[in-house]
Amino acid sequence: MDIQYLKGVGEKRVQLLHKLGLFSSEDLLTYYPRDYEDRTEFKRLCELLPGESVCVRATVSSPVQHSFVRKGMDLFRTTVFDDSGQIPLTFFNAPYVRNSLKQGEGYAFYGKVSASARGVELVNPVFEPLSAQGRITGRIMPLYRSTAGCPQALLRSAAAQALDRDLDTLPDALPDALRAEYQLCHMRFAVQNIHFPQTESGLLQARRRLVFEELLVLQLGLLRLKGQAEKGRRFTPVSLEDFRARLGFSLTEGQERALSDALGDMQEGRLMARLIQGDVGSGKTAVAAACALAAVRNGVQAAMMAPTEILAEQHFVTLAPLLEPLGVRTACLTGSLTPAKKRALHAALAAGEIDFCLGTHALVSDTVSFAELGLVITDEQHRFGVRQRKELTEKGSQPPHRLVMSATPIPRTLSMILYGDLDVTVMRGLPPGRKPVKTYVVTEDMRARIEAFVRKLVEDGRQVYIVCPLIEDEGAGPASVESYAKRLREDVFPDLRVGVIHGRLKPRAKEEAMRAFAAHESDILVATTVIEVGVNVPNAALMIVENAELFGLSQLHQLRGRVGRGDWESHCVLFLQSVSDTARKRLDVMRRCNDGFEIAEADLEMRGPGDVFGDRQHGLPVFKLADLSSDAKLLEETAQAARAILARDPALALPEHAALSALADRLISQTGRD
Ligand code: ADP
Ligand code: MG
How far is CA 291 from the centre of its chain? Predict the structure, then answer.
């Protein structure tokens, strides 16, 4: 049904609903409330306390009086009584109450109790006659996400009409047996109660049922994504001895295991879809390079995507000298290439004249085609969505093997969602000789000492990162790269070489700043979190983070991972501007803990997944109801249910799975779109 036909909804109001994305009855049914107002409690007038919101049953004792306060402000007053007492009611700009509140009649009111000169009063309460009570009082009322000019009453009425019309015929996507097994209520009960819950427990049951479906559909989609791509090119084993010799170090046990997992996948003849999860600095790049070389020696091209240009270029700068001498023709494709260069590179890729191409997501643009793409490596995966991952996979005649590397250790609940379509290798351990980075949480009174420490380190030949939350000053707020660098150059360290890097610089300037720092042409690099991922300068021995309370713990862990990469003892100083206990408690985790996995768990617990992963970039699907931090148990249950369903019906071809199958397809096609 089109919402045009709703009763009491004129053209103007239809526009408002359209603005909220509501076009049909189905849209209304699945437009779940964002919150609820509990109007179930009734009190007697003598029990009312200022500040509370309650219902009362009372009789109007006097005619409504109108008084004019000033232009645009009319006051309407009356009094009501019950067997316990009498209170005034006050309405602002509500002329309709003169007709709708009749002296001597009984009404149910709901509103906020305010203190008044002589006791308490209700201000602007909603009400309904006692003879027809129960529509807007004495029940749990939904609160919908709304838009300017669109009253809750309109949304409630629209939802109620949609329920009246279509609830009885609403199908349930979950098979009966599954509902029975997990004790889930029927879709009809769920939809009715998510909008207009009869009781608190009805609401909880409804929510559980709907969240279960959301998560189940997601898991089915991801598992199918993983299952679909079974057959892949079979690589033959190749020698990597020359590569190992050029590395200059031997691989750690963790790296060896990750490499053999990946090579094993690709030599088995099935399509690899593997995630390597390794803490910052664990040496994922070397594993990626070895895999790329193995692919190239099997006669196909390899590609590696990084989330930022800096990182793509840094990979190129490290890997080209390593691989070129072994005969691997290596290139880097980023958005900042000139059109001519881009065209030339595209042509070379299509002609198979490049063996290994690094780049940003520019690699997945429609204009890029490969002669024979056999392996796609994605670095720092959590910044890409499932869909982007898929797009690159769909290039080429036969799907390429996929290797995903994540430096952000993420809690299991989230990895199930983000990487449910992948096999996982956890790469434990760091290369030998790494000393843990000593971490300090400090306040402003330590500044002089920290500055002296910076000077001493630089005199010893080391380098220092300083990370600020902002690029430019926004008044007296958090530290900004621009003004911080100015202060260092002019006042604090006029004799030291201070570089600057942030996301608003031209790619050329960014590259130059990074290159200069890596070449030790600057001593201090003042930066935003653009350096968060991957950048590698082993001579840097100190990381200072300003306004550390504004960063997530996983992000701080990433930043800290920029130091401690060389032979020197390294330090991380977290400047704290806020003195709140929560901020201190959060940052204290950093002081105590060096394990990225533990930190990620703590971060998720304290902030929730949206914040941990940033808003748009995380690649997490947008849920209507599910909340990954509080619905962890349902996530486990639905994972189990999804596996059981697919074990019995891998293609979801049984009639009872038709609805789930359609929902899963729709979700996967939406996920990861930016
Ligand atoms: P990440 O896992 O964070 O991507 P990188 O691949 O950038 O880590 O490696 C971090 C540093 O450790 C690099 O300088 C790299 O050369 C070095 N490295 C990697 N593996 C080893 C190893 N097995 N032994 C010694 N150093 C290593
Ligand atoms: Mg890396």
Answer: 30
| Contact status, residue 416 vs residue 639, Cβ threshold 8 Å | yes
Type of residue found at 124? N
Ligand 1 centroid distance, CA of 431 (Å): 7
Whether residue 255 has its Cβ less than 6 Å from ligand 1: yes
288 lines ligand 1 (CB under 6 A): no
pLDDT band for position 674 (cuts 50, 70, 90): very low
Alpha carbon distance 75, 91 (integer Å)? 6
pLDDT in tens, 316-356: 999 999 999 999 999 999 877 899 999 999 999 999 999 99
* CA distance to 168, 182, 311, 552, 558, per residue, from 504 (Å): 55, 51, 16, 22, 21
Strand ranges of the sheet holding 423-427, from the earlier edge strand across to the other edge? 330-333, 356-359, 301-305, 373-379, 401-406, 273-278, 423-427
Residue nearest atom 13 of ligand 1, based on CA coordinates: 283
The ligand 1 atom nearest the CA atom of 278: 2
From 282, 308, 319, 562, the mutation candidate for ligand 1 (largest count of ligand atoms within 8 A of CB) is 282
Question: Does the beta carbon of 192 lie inside 6 Å of ligand 1?
Answer: no
Ligand 1 atom at shortest distance from the alpha carbon of 283: 6
- Of the candidates 442, 400, 404, the one whose C-alpha atom is nearest the C-alpha of residue 423 is 404
Q: Is 286 in the pocket of ligand 1 (CB under 6 A)?
A: yes
- DSSP string over 376-393: EEEESGGGS-HHHHHHHH
Residue 10: pLDDT band (50, 70, 90) is confident
Give me the residue label for tokens 């047996």: 177
Tell me phi and psi for residue 144, to 5 degrees: -100, 155
Question: Does pTM surpass 0.70?
Answer: no
In angstroms, what is the span from residue 285 Cα to ligand 1's centroid? Answer: 7
Whose C-alpha lies nearest to ligand 1, atom 4? 284
- Residue 252 CA to ligand 1 centre (angstroms): 10
Name the CA dihedral angle for 385, 386, 388, 393, rounded to a multiple of 10 degrees.
150
Beta carbons of 127 and 78 less than 8 angstroms apart: no
